[in-house]
Specification:
The complex is a heterodimer of chains A (424) and B (541). In chain A, 41% of the residues lie in helices and 20% in strands. With 424 residues, chain A is of the alpha/beta class. Chain A folds into three domains: 61 residues, no CATH class; 80 residues; 171 residues, von Willebrand factor, type A domain (Rossmann fold). In chain A, the strands form three sheets. In chain A, strands 10-9-8-11-12-13 form a six-stranded mixed β-sheet, with helices on both faces. In chain A, a hairpin with a 3-residue loop joins β9 and β10. Chain B is 51% helix and 11% strand. Chain B starts with a strand and ends in a 7-residue tail after the last strand. Chain B has a four-stranded mixed β-sheet with strand order 1-3-4-2. Chain B has a four-stranded mixed β-sheet with strand order 7-8-9-10, with helices on one face. Chain B folds into three domains: 278 residues, no CATH class; 120 residues, no CATH class; 64 residues. Chain B is built from 23 helices and ten strands. The relative contact order of chain B is 0.11. Classes of the chains: A alpha/beta (424), B alpha/beta (541). β3 of chain A pairs antiparallel with β5 of chain B, so a sheet runs across the interface.
């Protein structure tokens, strides 16, 4: 019979399984495209979808079909002025003048198959490349700020938190509870006394009067001893301290751009910064990024210059640290800002400078920072590494790691930022 | 405008069953019997937005009108869906459920992209050849469009599914959805047990041969779906045993071997159904792989009538939505605004751009089909002398009976061969071009004139013959004693060669077969003109 069924709310995204299989099949191309996109993107734009181009020949499903040639006859509509026996020049290429089904099947040309990877899928692939299973929402080991919340009432506290109404209410209740029995007795005795006193003379009960009066007096005295306000009545507003991540953070990205940092090392550094950035955006509402690059001198730059400009020359790492401290003190008071530092370098430094770097870090920068990570994108251990290693051993908020391949970045990153008490 | 699906085999009502005539009694069969009811006092409300009540009202009127014309349909089930769900359905070849495969994901992505960029309107509807017949109405459609879709799909296509001999013979409307659910679960189970990659590879290979996985001439066996599912397990075991028997390597008895000196030919006759042959005979396939080959083969078979009745099916549905909605108007149910709106849509659907036009991409099946049924009606009602000469059996006959007969007993190829009239060829200005690679130029072989009518009609009819549209490739032989390689043979039609993708397809064949595969392309004289071969796949197990 006649049935109209509303399916609009049911079974959305039924094709999602097919889409997953499609993405899975073309993982390599997608990964390649993501990699290219990562190279081309500013790191603030990292969390966006991406158009993926796949060459059409890679996604066609071959079937047996007729090729060009042989003899075939096609019927077309809309004859204008041909008569039988007319000769027509053979169209160049194409499917014989756009004739029929065959031509339209293969007529797609060599356009790429383009589709849009959503933001989530993009991040999935991005972290996939870094061997990231899922970005778990973790909190940094130390939560730096607390906020106090009202949390009901407690029976002890400081006088300034005394809740008067609540305390008085308790007191009334206590007084009622403690006095009710005595009051009832008192009332009975008083009624009895009155009855005796009203009795016409001669009063056979007159001898009881003193006894009653004494009892009444005793009861009155007892009732009066019930305190108006007892310490047990006092109630205080309870406040608990709840740790809250502060809402603002600044990340200092320090990178060595001296001649020895080539593009691949810079790419490693960049990927590390991207991860850090994404990590921080999941914890703080507002992120400022300060890019500092240095060779022998440090300079604050925008990200374009930070990642792409190469300079040559020697290396004085301490220049960047000095600049970082200056900027932090000038613009990012620690009372408002969580300061993070991430430094990437190939470990090459002017040898007299490394000791100074260590001092700067230990005395000036680390006290300001929540965390400072140093990543060396080269294998070789030079004096900077040695100095930093010594410092890292004694300071909790400072960590150093080495990364030489892209796929090491995520493990190192996770190691650096792992939640306390969980295995990396 | 539509995608339809229909399902294969098993337990189809017999084409010539005596019940057929019985079932038809009580229905109006002749135009002369049509009773015209009194004109409606008031037209149906005609707002732009639809509502469930309105759809029900319109549906009720359309249904009673369809009954007046004696349209015999499966029960209807109308479902409202969103554009996104429409794209979902598109992606899984128009079916509400299907097994998972990346190619459907690809389809979905490109559909979605085209839709979002406005390159393509979505189909207004999808109708599924099932019992009850499910028609999808899209949420975005206006009321006029919903009425058009109901008339087109729920009565046009639906009656075609129920009436046409190919569908009656090959599809079982009642069990399609169940079978697809079974297929989906089976494939999902295999993915779990054997891994996504193994299943994907297998499905890829099967899909490559899908068009050659149908029985073109053989009648399907009459097994109901439920029986078949019940026997699924037995079949796996039995089939495996059969395969093993064929590849028996134990020495035969001496005297028997002597009498079989000449190598046994296998298969004894060429086989047209490649997937069936592989399912039954491929030596290395696991039972679950055979079952998946079978599923793909069943689905392919299920679409086979569909591919052969494009013009007829769309033409029939278009003819009837046109007829039904016009009748509704004549009966006073439709307002002028509604008429204008659906007519605009109708006009777009039946537009046939002439050759050379930038939108030309072959003959529009809606246009041709609609014109042909309309033309048959015209020939019945107002035949000209020419029509009397060409269609003596039709001229002046009852039009309803005649088109009903045409709908039931033909497929595109024979339908055009039988019913394309000179009048229509002139209207469409049809002409035929021969493209022979031996000649430097194309030649116009026939046009819409007295000398050319028959030739054009024959050429167009051939154009819709799937046998000539798709290359004829059959299993030729298997090297039983040697390297077990499989040889396929392509018999050229008019010397037309195979497309270069043949090499790629052969790789898929060899993956299924498990050993080397050869393909010979044979021309009209029986000489092999081209040869492809693919070595045995490296065993990756």
């Amino acid at each position: 019979m006649q049935q109209i069924i509303d399916r609009r709310l049911a079974g959305k995204n039924k094709s999602i399984g097919n889409r997953e299989r499609f993405l899975r099949r073309h993982k390599d191309q997608i990964r390649e495209a993501v990699k290219r996109a990562v190279d081309g993107r500013g790191i603030r734009d990292m969390e966006k979808g991406e158009d993926i181009h796949i060459p059409r020949r890679d996604i066609t499903e071959p079937v047996f079909g007729h090729g060009q040639g042989g003899k075939r006859e096609m019927v077309h509509p809309g004859n204008q002025d041909y008569v039988r026996g007319d000769k027509i020049e053979r169209p160049k290429g194409g499917g014989g003048g756009g004739g029929g089904g065959q031509a339209s099947d293969s007529g797609e040309g060599d356009d790429d198959f383009v589709f849009h990877l959503s933001k989530e899928e993009f991040m999935q692939v991005f972290f996939d490349d870094l061997a990231l299973p899922n970005l778990a929402r973790t909190t940094l080991a130390e939560t730096p700020e607390y906020k106090t919340h009202r949390a009901g009432y407690s029976s002890d506290g400081t006088p300034n938190n005394l809740h008067v109404v609540r305390s008085m209410r308790g007191a009334i209740g206590r007084r009622i509870a403690l006095g009710s029995e005595s009051r009832r007795e008192l009332r009975q005795l008083e009624e009895k006394l009155e009855a005796i006193q009203r009795h016409p003379k001669p009063n056979p009960f007159a001898h009881e009067i003193p006894e009653l009066e004494r009892e009444i007096a005793a009861l009155r005295a007892r009732l009066e001893r019930i305190p108006y306000l007892d310490p047990i009545d006092l109630r205080y507003r309870s406040r608990v301290r709840v740790p809250v991540p502060t809402s603002k953070a600044v990340m200092f990205c320090l990178m060595d751009v001296s001649g020895s940092m080539d593009e691949s090392r810079k790419d490693l550094a960049k990927r590390f910064f991207i991860l850090l950035y994404l990590f921080l955006t999941r914890h703080y509402e507002k992120i400022d990024i300060v890019f500092i690059r240095h060779h022998t001198q440090a300079q604050e730059v925008d990200e374009q210059n930070f990642f792409h400009a190469t300079e040559t020359g020697g290396t004085v790492v301490s220049s960047a640290l000095v600049l970082m401290e200056e900027i932090a003190r000038a613009r990012y008071p620690t009372s408002e800002w969580n300061i993070y530092g991430a430094q990437a370098s190939d470990g090459d430094n002017w040898h007299h400078d490394s000791g100074r770097c260590r001092e700067l870090l230990a005395n000036a920068i680390l006290p300001l920072c929540r965390y400072f990570a140093y990543v060396q994108v080269a294998e070789e251990e030079q004096n900077l590494w040695d100095e930093y290693a010594a410092l890292a051993a004694e300071t909790k908020a400072f960590a150093i790691r080495k990364v030489t391949e892209a796929n090491q970045i995520y493990p190192v990153f996770r190691d650096l930022f792992k939640k306390e008490g969980t295995p990396a | 405008m539509t995608r339809k699906a229909n399902f294969v085999p098993d337990g189809t009502a017999d084409l010539f069953e005596p019940d057929l005539a019985k079932a038809l009694t009580g229905r109006v069969k002749r135009a002369a019997d049509i009773v015209t009811p009194p004109r409606a006092a008031q037209p149906l409300a005609a707002p732009s937005d639809w509502s469930f009540e309105l759809i029900e009202q319109y549906h009720a009127v359309i249904r009673s009108t369809a009954e007046r014309f004696g349209l015999d349909t499966y029960p209807n089930q109308l479902e409202i869906i969103t554009a996104e769900q429409m794209m979902d359905a598109y992606a899984s070849v128009g079916m509400p459920v299907n097994y998972r495969h990346w190619s459907y994901g690809k389809e979905f992505i490109s559909t979605e992209k085209n839709y979002k960029r406005g390159h393509m309107g979505l189909a207004y509807e999808i109708v599924i050849n099932s019992n009850p017949c499910i028609s999808y109405l899209m949420e975005e459609n206006t009321m006029a469009m919903q009425a058009l879709v109901i008339a087109h799909a729920a009565y046009g296509h639906n009656s075609f599914f129920k009436g046409n001999y190919l569908f009656r013979m090959w599809t079982d409307a009642a069990s399609i959805i169940d079978y697809l659910v079974y297929a989906k679960n089976y494939v999902a189970g295999c993915e779990e047990r054997h891994g996504l990659d193994a299943v994907e590879e297998l499905l890829d290979s099967c899909h490559a041969l899908m068009n050659h996985g149908v029985d073109r001439y053989r009648r399907p066996s009459k097994l109901s779906l439920t029986q078949e599912l019940a026997r699924s397990k037995d079949r796996e075991a039995y089939a495996q045993q059969q395969v093993n028997d064929m590849w028996r390597t134990l020495p035969r008895k001496a005297e028997k071997a002597a009498s079989e000196k000449e190598v046994r030919r296998f298969p004894e006759e060429p086989q047209e159904n490649l997937l069936y042959f592989i399912e039954k005979n491929a030596p290395l396939l696991e039972p679950w792989q055979r079952e998946i080959v079978r599923i793909v083969r069943k689905v392919a078979q299920y679409f086979y009538p569909q591919r052969q009745t494009q013009v007829m099916n769309e033409g029939w549905a278009t003819f009837w939505h046109h007829k039904l909605l016009n009748t509704l108007y004549d009966d006073g149910h439709l307002t002028d605004g509604m008429m204008i709106e659906w007519l605009k849509s109708h006009t777009n659907v039946v537009y046939q751009p002439p050759v050379g036009h930038k939108h030309y991409s072959g003959i529009n099946p809606y246009a041709l089909g609609f014109a042909m049924y309309t033309d048959i009606k015209r020939i019945c009602e107002k035949p000209t002398d020419e029509d009397r000469a060409w269609f003596p059996g039709m001229a002046g006959k009852d039009w309803l009976e005649t088109i009903d007969h045409a709908m039931r007993n033909f497929k595109d190829e024979s339908f055009i061969g039988q019913y394309l009239s000179p009048q229509l060829m002139r209207d469409f200005r049809l002409f035929s071009i021969v493209d022979d690679e031996k000649e430097s130029e194309l030649e116009v072989s026939a046009i819409h004139d007295e000398a050319g009518y028959r030739a054009v009609r024959e050429a167009l009819s051939h154009q819709y013959d799937l046998g000539s549209r798709e290359p004829n490739i059959q299993v030729w032989s298997v090297n039983l004693r040697g390297d077990r390689s499989l040889t396929l043979r392509h018999t050229q039609h008019n010397d037309r060669p195979l497309h270069d993708s043949a090499q790629e397809v052969l790789k898929h064949v060899s993956r299924l077969w498990g050993f080397g595969v050869h393909l010979d392309s044979v021309d009209g004289q029986g000489t092999v003109t081209k040869h492809w071969s693919v070595p045995a796949p490296v065993n990756h197990n």
